Amino acid sequence: MLKSSLFSSIIKTSVLLSFVGANCHVFAKEGMWLPPTLKSRETDMQKMGLEIPIEQIYNTSGTSLNNAVVLFGKGCTGEIISSKGLILTNHHCGYGTVQGLSSKEHDYFANGFWAQNNSEELPCGGLTVTFIRRMENVTDKITTGLTDTIPEADRNNIVNTRIKNLEKGYKVSSGLDATIKPYFNGNQYWVILSETYRDIRLVGFPPNGIGTFGGDTDNWSWPRHTGDFSMFRVYAGKNNKPADYSKDNKPYEAKEYFTLNISGYKEGDFTMVYGFPGTTNEYISSYQLNQIYSIIDPIRIEARTKRLNAWQEQMQKNREVFLKYTSKRAGVANGWKKWQGEVRGLKLNDALGKKQDYERNFQQWAITDNSLPYADDLLSQMAAKSLSINDILKTDEYFKEAVYGVELVQQASLLDKMLQVMRSGLNGSALKDSLIKLSKASGGFYKNYDAETDKHVFDVLMPLFMNKCAGRIPATFTKQYNEQGKNYSRWGDYVFSSIVASSEDIAHFADNSAAADSNKIKNDPAWILYNAANQYRSTYLTPNINRYYNDMAYLNRLYMNAQMQLDKHKIFYPDANLTLRLTYGKIDGIDPDGPAGYSYQTTLDGVIAKDNPDVDEFKVPQKLKELYTKKDYGRWAVNGTVPVAFIASNHTSGGNSGSPVLNAKGELIGTNFDRVWEGTMSDLYFDPNLCRNISLDIRYTLFIVEKFGNAGWLLKEMKIVNNKKK
Question: Which CATH architecture has domain 2-128+198-282+573-721?
Answer without folding.
Answer: Beta Barrel (2.40)
